[in-house]
Amino acid sequence: MLLVEDERSISEPFSHALEREGFLPIVVETAADARDALAEHEPDIVLLDLMLPDADGRDLARELRAASDVPLIMLTARATHTDRIVGLELGADDYVVKPFVVAEVIARIRAVLRRGRGRATRPASLSCADVTVDLAAHRAWRGEQELSLTRKEFDLLARLLRDPGHVVTREDLMSDVWDENWFGSTKTLDVHLAALRRKLDDDPASPHYIQTVRGVGYRFVLSEDRRS
Ligand code: CA
Fold it and tell me: Which residues contact 80 (CB under 8 A, 6 or more apart)?
């Protein structure tokens, strides 16, 4: 994995989070170093900032695409529709608008790697049972019904859906959804989770989708384990 990002306030916490998730990011800050690293390491995926000190990231993306079909995710502070389209037209597999939620970017990295090589223009999504989240569009559905979620509720759901059937610890949820500079009360997590459950479940008194694992964390329940 190659991370091309000149802002250390972004690349340092982000690369540490990637390492915790089992990735081995090589971090470079310029287009020149990115070219050297690409030649030397043959990364399995490239995360590319759009605004670099020595080049426009779009030019580097074009170069990269001319030479290889390595999966590419653009990191951009620009959020206009045109920029997103341009990013995808350059052959990026996905794009992330800064400031980003680390858990969401990691979910997109996994989705892009799962899709494998080859250009896909569909936005990354996660689903389990009848619940689906579209990470690029920030929308979620249960069956045909779209859920009206706050940003934190959405991030929590996306994080749990990344590991369906597995317990996600409270610490992981806090650090992934609230970032690692979180020093507040974990009560906040419970409040947002309760709100998410109310929107997700028909009967919040006996939660079907999200199970509390006492003293550990929460788990998105696979349909075969769900109480009916
Ligand atoms: Ca930059």
Answer: none
